[in-house]
Predict the 3D structure of the following.
Amino acid sequence: PAVAGRAFYWAADQDEQAAKQLALGIYRKLYCEATDASRPAEIAAMIAALGLDGDAWLAVADSAALKARYK
């Protein structure tokens, strides 16, 4: 999902190790748990659990700059 990809790029700008953990968490939810990990609020919670600011990500999740970067 595109929103998950944007979250990864945002997280990588904050902390590369946290971004890797986020990617693994999203993968696990999508393919191991068969849950929808594409909702921004759920991704924000995952980001917060990694010690990053989930609210800050939500604020830019749909920004044109982040969308352009993910293309």
